[in-house]
Write a structure and sequence with these properties.
Elements: H1 11-18, H2 34-47, E1 52-56, H3 64-79, E2 83-87, H4 91-97, E3 100-105, E4 108-114, H5 120-127
Parallel strand pairs: 1-2
Antiparallel strand pairs: 3-4
Helix pairs in contact: 2-3
């Protein structure tokens, strides 16, 4: 069994599904590119069939092609019924993968908005809002 998959019989399917590029099935995960390592981490969690998945900066430090693949995987997971919570400082990423966006500042919720209503400008305004007690809501 390789060090990154749960079941050997699932390895070829998972590598193809996640577009994991490797020299051989025995290649150590630490020898792969950052994007492939990130997809392996997601594959591990996906194999557990979670009901909720929380990812923090899921594409930090990986190339644009891998970012798109990770975004598509997160979207597919959400479509399959998994609740996916994405924490990211990259606004384009948030806009690409979210259905609903909640912004925070200094540990407090500063706004909530549907992706269909959101723009980077609105999100920046929500993130920099000063909130005392009540939650600001985007109209």
């Amino acid at each position: 069994m390789t060090s990154w998959m749960c079941r050997r019989e699932d390895e070829p399917r998972d590598r193809k599904l996640l577009s994991i590029r490797m020299a051989s099935p025995e290649q150590a995960a630490g020898q792969l590119s950052g994007g492939n390592q990130q997809k392996i981490v997601l594959a591990r969690w996906l194999a557990l069939r979670p009901k909720i998945l929380i990812v923090d900066e899921p594409t930090r430090g990986i190339d644009i092609g891998s970012k798109v693949e990770v975004h598509n995987l997160l979207i597919d997971m959400a479509k399959s019924g998994i609740a996916v919570i994405v924490i990211s400082s990259e606004l384009p990423e948030i806009l690409a993968v979210s259905d609903r966006i909640v912004t925070m500042r200094e540990g407090r919720v500063t706004g909530e908005i549907a992706r269909t209503e959101a723009t980077q400008e609105i999100l920046m305004a929500m993130m920099t809002a000063h909130v005392s007690g009540a939650t600001a809501a985007a109209a």
